[in-house]
Amino acid sequence: MFVLLLGAPGSGKGTQGKIVAERLGLPKITTGDILRAAVRAETPLGLQAKKYMDDGKLVPDAVILSLIKEELAKPEAKEGAVFDGFPRTAAQAELVDTTLGERGQRLSKVLLLDVPEEELLQRLTARAAQENRSDDTPEAIRTRLQVYQRDTAPLVAHYAQRGIVHRVPGTGTIEEIATEIQRIVGR
Ligand code: AMP
Q1: Which residue segments constitute the domains of the chain, with CATH numbers given?
Q2: Can you give the pTM of this predicted structure?
Q3: Residues 6 or more apart from 159 whose CB is under 8 A from it?
């Protein structure tokens, strides 16, 4: 089963993705983590991505599409995976659709974590103090929320057409949200 966690920065995709991936026994593929590791290791990918990430902008599709292809081709992602942080643009969604389609597979469920904007701002600001991420400055946070609305939120309509979007209120406790996701995923 392929499951996508969709939601704004700070909506809890990472936390809930980890819980649902463990429960389903599937790998979680997180482009943000892969990119942050590449930045730390100063690989060519990391060097290309860093400036965009620090500014809160999306790393260009020209760079990300090959990364996604590589991740989907890994043996552990053959039967299913939980996607966290991608697809984030129409071109990325298209790549995921075609790659899975060529394998006779498809995304089964899109879990849309719904959190009001003020709460997202509060969470991201609190996280900035804890995690020391270089993109948790007030300006980068603002940009990331705008970029989500502009580039990623339209994917909801794309998947809603297929009837696979499940809206999950993202404001309860971690356990409550995880239980709701379990109900939707059925396991
Ligand atoms: P995240 O941890 O998912 O919020 O990602 C942190 C940053 O990594 C984003 O602000 C982007 O700069 C970059 N990033 C992560 N995933 C993607 C993606 N699928 N497409 C483009 N940029 C991404």
Answers
A1: 2-185 (3.40.50.300)
A2: 0.96
A3: 4, 6, 93, 107, 110, 165
Report the separation in Å between the CA atom of 150 and the middle of ligand 1, taken as the mean of its atom positions.
14
Whether 187 contacts 28, CB under 8 Å? no
Q: What is the pLDDT of residue 187?
A: 85
Nearest Cα to 83, choosing from 106, 63, 60?
106
Mutation probe of ligand 1 site: the residue of 5, 15, 31 with most atoms within 8 A of C-beta:
31
pLDDT in tens, 87-111: 999 999 999 999 999 999 999 999 9
Residue-wise pLDDT for 121-161, tens only, equals 999 999 888 888 889 899 999 999 999 999 999 999 999 99
Residue type, 152: T
